Amino acid sequence: MPEPRHPADGPATLRDVAQRVGVSAMTASRALRDDPSVLPATRERIRAAAAELGYRPNEVARSLRLGRGTGLVGLVVTNLANPFYSRLALGVDSVIAGDGFKTVIGNTGQDLDSERELVADLVARRVDGIIAVPASADQRHLAAAAADGVPVVLASRPPEGFEADCVLVDDFGGARAATARLITRGHRRIGFLGSPPAVYTGTERLRGYAAALAAHGIPFDDSCVRQGQTEPREARRAAAELLALPEPPTALFCSNNRNTIGAFRAIRASGTDTALAGFDDFELADSLGLPLTLVAYDSDEVGRAAGQLLADRLRGKGSDTDKKTALGSVQRIVTPTSLVEYGS
Fold first, then answer.
1. CA 190 to chain centre
2. Of 27-36, 50-59, 202-211, which one has max mean pLDDT?
3. d(CA 125, CA 64)
4. What angle do helix axes 14-21 and 40-53 make, rounded to 10 degrees?
């Protein structure tokens, strides 16, 4: 009788299952695939042994032997602490799971070197495709993955230096509309809190903010701009600096929800009635007890659209829905935005 396995021996293998029953590994493999050439009683004994040992087939290795993909899709994001990325991931997964794929998520922390390593690791693990939110305009590693035959779809930032499908948000238009809303309410000195300059969305939203000022004859003032904040505590400090200026802004526009939350805390701490607007709706925004204008869009839809683009590539076909504009052989989707108001 075979000696019992110890957990320290590592995961059970097909050979362990075969030895437990006293059959060949080939017979065990056939039984676990429900091959009718294996007697029903033997199949049951083999299944029972597999369950007892905790054996799980290596589907990745099996798929590669059969000339199929791994069934895995890599999702590369910059900040998992931001709720936008969790919604993005849910949107991606809701689409690709229907095609039998599983999502592997990696966080880069907005660091280019980490992103390069993560993409290289995903390619080495033979993922079937990659959806990425790039940390910067340097996308050579993504271009290399695409050149190696791995379908690549970008979200929130367009491709740089290579062609790829992408899903964007109307960052410029949304920021311009929110800033214009503040201006129509009488604000002429409006502060800006944004992401690091290398972040595409932050740059586009700063551009929209500046365009709204220009359209209303308000000069752009560098002293009212703070960039580089990625977390609420950093945004709170930056907002507090603006509120402490000799001539402080009467309103603040924030380029993402992390900056909006930090700015809200700074306004509350200062005791001022500074108006607040921001990009990205977020949970409990309606409970802050402060007049708040937010640029809203469907972040799940950004993920669903990216997942659909990748699924189409993996099936070897393109989609021609009227939401997409062909750029040669690639597709670009721009998700629209709207303004929502909270508070009085």
1. 30
2. 202-211
3. 11
4. 120
Distance CA 139, CA 115 (A): 10
Length of the chain: 344
Residue partners of 2: CB distance under 8 A and separation at least 6: 19, 20
User: What DSSP letter does each residue of 243-290 carry, written as one string?
Assistant: HTSSS--SEEEESSHHHHHHHHHHHHHHT---EEEEES--TTGGGSSS
Quote the CA–CA distance of 91 and 97 in Å, as a whole number.
10
Confidence (pTM): 0.76
Query: Alpha-carbon torsion 304, 306, 311, 312, what sign?
Result: positive
H or E element, residue 239: helix 232-243
- Whole-number Å distance between alpha carbons of 28 and 34: 10
Closest CA to 176 of 214, 140, 137: 214
**pLDDT value at 67 more than 80:** no
The full DSSP string for 80-139 is TTSHHHHHHHHHHHHHHGGGT-EEEEEE-TT-HHHHHHHHHHHHHTT-SEEEE--SSS--
* pLDDT for res 327: 38
Strand 165-169 relative to strand 190-194, pairing: unpaired
Please enumerate in sequence order all residues whose Cβ is within 8 A of that of 299, keeping only pairs 6 or more positions apart, or say none: 83, 84, 87, 88, 91, 280
